[in-house]
Amino acid sequence: MPDMLEQFAEETIEELLKKLPAARRLKGLSAGERLEGLSVDELLSSLPAETRAALAKRLKENGSPPAN
Hints:
Elements: H1 2-19, H2 22-26, H3 31-35, H4 40-46, H5 49-62
């Protein structure tokens, strides 16, 4: 019985998450958590050209960012 209850809860949560707007699903997550799992290409392709240019300029002015 607990397995059925867990499965029901999991399915219900999945349904609710699908219905929520993206902003609401992301509420409470840090910027790092929101970006987690994205490749560099995915990240760059999602940024507007102006933002990519500003980042490139900043990296050129300040040198490479420190390695993590």
